[in-house]
Amino acid sequence: MSGRLDGKVAVITGAASGIGAGTARRFVDEGASVVVADLQADAGGAVAAALGDRARFAQADVTNEDDVAAAVDLAVSEFGRLDVMFNNAGIVGVVGSIAEMPADAWDNTIGILLRGVFLGTKHAARIMIDQGSGVIISTSSTAGIVGGLGPHAYTAAKHGVIGLTKSVANELAPFGIRVNAISPGNTVTAMTASVGGGDPDDLDTITGHIASTSPLGYAGFPDDIAAAALYLASDEARYVTGHTLVVDAGQTTSGMTPNRMNTGASRQIHEAGRTS
Q1: Which of 20, 72, 134, 276 has the fewest CB within 10 Å, making it most exposed?
Q2: Is 274 contained in some domain?
Q3: Does 218 participate in catalysis according to the annotation?
Q4: What is the pLDDT of residue 261?
């Protein structure tokens, strides 16, 4: 690798699997030290252990401010600074008709997808303002760009991530801090496998499905989103802030059919595709 993040320190939430794990690996390969922050202790610990001496694990519920603050503080205590905060943790959350959706399930989804981004941004800014530098990246979605591509609560939260990104970018630019978002399209992960076929471990089937519906004719993988995060985290993006980088094979440029997750009985889809 080229060492595009040599000497940088990053915290990545939701880094036990999927896009977060892929980004943690890519960042370490490019020279960064990384705090793998995730609610899933076994999986997150395994990712950090596999990454070696330049990785640490922090068990974190991103809706809990103390957990998020502790993950940021771990980066500083172990590695001396914080250069990149990647607010990536997420779930699909509650799905189903708006007329049947439980309010507590709505609140839980918004808490993870939007409150979690707020808390990560808040505590990263706490460190970065004093440093006079830093990069904050948050995961939105194509559902944050166009209506009808995701469940209602998920869509609302992902639009909120983009709005928060723009607002905070405006505040923090004078401190040398860049704030951007990434909006992935359909990406092969346990979560999309669960949504697409009901089995979070069946990545082959979801790969074929995503490829068949992709304008480019092939599926996107966590490494594709990690490449976007690497660009935004690196000095190559030194003049980019307040931006949402859409990584979707052109999905949002074409007409889409209504999303089936906005119909039927309400249910929730949690970490790594678990359903309740």
Answers
A1: 276
A2: no
A3: no
A4: 59
